[in-house]
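User: I've been trying to design a sequence by hand for this structure and keep getting stuck. Would you show me what you'd pick, starting by listing the structure so we're on the same page?

Assistant: Good idea, let's start from the same input. This is the structure you sent:
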């Protein structure tokens, strides 16, 4: 399947704009005229959203759509605690970190308390792309090396450096000369088998670097391998990978933008499930529940030479309003028991998808942990992005929002906000069966 066709599984086809209702057609045309050709819209019938609350998004006619996809609003859309914290702080002070202020320090202490003690510093940015870009800079300064290893369908950001290391952006974005791609972890096998096979791919990339007189600076992985089709288990398989990159003189960077902030239910951070302590951890999207806030946490020794030789400043990274949003997110996750909810409801949701699979063979392997689930869609034992697209768009027509990912675009990506309830799961599963019956 071509890359262009794969991306269209989830995207609106602009050639079908004439099929839209007049008001939406005007918006699509206006969007294209003002924003240019690089942006994409979800769904064959794009969704016009005016309001969000909890796990629901509301369209222009007031219809409620169940959000089973959005990890940005991790504690729910427009959570009143975040709204109040941001509004209150915005009315008092919003400035940069070159002045002394307690807000960023209080938040840094609270955030670092969720990590192993070995992770002792945190630096703030506005986006996950910035956080990963900073991590690469630090890795190259700390090691003196330049090579970066990522997985074959990885997504890590949109800066020039990260786009070259994000093959999921498509063939139109050229892989960087200092980047090597490795196969993602296998979806079957025990911890040792999966871990060894993944580490072997990393060792081959390191050998290829050596053949070109390049040394590895870092292995950068999303610890739930979201863009590779959701590969969460078996827990512990990342240990051998970290040993392999360390033995070659590189660092291990855990990209927690998608699995972090209690999403897996089992742990606050995805890497914790694997019994490893990364050299650096990057965060983004869910960190401020929609407010632009991201960061990079690190072992102090890793930052030592970078901090000594280079300045770092981010005008909006770590500002008092962002810190207030971040603190509210941590408080809500703890006080509302959202990690425990992710574990409990995630188990119910996976069991429900498995029950559907027993009746509808287009659903093949089901993977994931907590409220992050991937389900392979196949036809006659072959990946079927076309059927995945029909499921995604059929659910959208029933006012349920999910997406698809993976190398071929045939993996349903089920990733709701953390307050998702068992009743929400039942609603989703009922609508999904309705679509499956139409196939």
């Amino acid at each position: 399947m071509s890359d262009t066709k794969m991306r269209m599984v989830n995207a609106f086809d602009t050639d079908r704009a004439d099929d839209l209702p007049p008001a939406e057609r005007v918006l699509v045309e206006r969007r294209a005229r003002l924003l240019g050709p690089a942006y994409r819209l979800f769904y064959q019938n794009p969704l016009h959203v005016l309001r969000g609350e909890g796990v629901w998004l509301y369209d222009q006619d007031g219809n409620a759509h169940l959000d089973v996809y959005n990890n940005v609003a991790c504690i729910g859309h427009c959570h009143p605690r975040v709204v109040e914290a941001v509004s209150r702080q915005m009315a008092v002070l919003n400035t940069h970190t070159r002045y002394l202020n307690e807000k960023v320090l209080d938040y840094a202490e609270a955030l670092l308390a969720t990590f192993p003690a070995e992770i002792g510093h945190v630096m703030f940015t506005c986006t996950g792309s910035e956080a990963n870009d900073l991590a690469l800079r630090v890795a190259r300064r700390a090691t003196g090396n330049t090579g970066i290893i990522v997985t074959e369908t990885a997504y890590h950001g949109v800066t020039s450096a990260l786009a070259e290391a994000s093959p999921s952006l498509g063939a139109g974005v050229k892989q960087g000369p200092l980047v090597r791609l490795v196969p993602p972890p296998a979806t079957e096998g025990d911890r040792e088998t999966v871990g060894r096979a993944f580490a072997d791919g990393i060792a081959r990339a390191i050998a290829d670097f050596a053949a070109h007189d390049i040394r590895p600076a870092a292995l950068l992985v999303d610890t739930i391998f979201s863009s590779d089709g959701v590969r969460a288990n078996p827990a512990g398989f990342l240990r051998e990978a970290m040993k392999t990159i360390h033995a070659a003189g590189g660092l291990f960077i855990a990209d927690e933008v998608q699995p972090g902030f209690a999403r897996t239910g089992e742990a606050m951070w995805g890497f914790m499930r694997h019994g490893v302590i990364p050299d650096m951890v990057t965060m983004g999207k869910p960190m401020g529940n929609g407010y632009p806030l991201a960061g990079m946490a690190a072992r102090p020794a890793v930052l030592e030479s970078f901090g000594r030789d280079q300045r770092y400043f981010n005008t909006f990274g770590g500002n008092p309003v962002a810190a207030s949003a971040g603190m509210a997110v941590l408080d809500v996750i703890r006080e509302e028991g959202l990690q425990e909810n992710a574990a409990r409801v995630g188990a119910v949701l996976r069991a429900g998808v498995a029950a559907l699979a027993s009746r509808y063979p287009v659903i093949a392997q089901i993977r994931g942990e907590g409220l992050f689930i991937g389900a392979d869609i196949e036809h006659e034992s072959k990946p079927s992005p076309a059927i995945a697209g029909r499921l995604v768009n059929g659910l959208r027509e029933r006012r349920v929002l999910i997406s698809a990912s993976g190398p071929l675009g045939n993996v349903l990506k089920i990733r709701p906000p953390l307050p998702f309830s068992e009743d929400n799961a039942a609603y989703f599963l009922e609508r999904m069966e309705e679509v499956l019956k139409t196939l």
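That's my pick for every position. To get oriented when you compare it with your attempt: The two ends are 21 Å apart (CA to CA). The longest strand covers residues 216-222.
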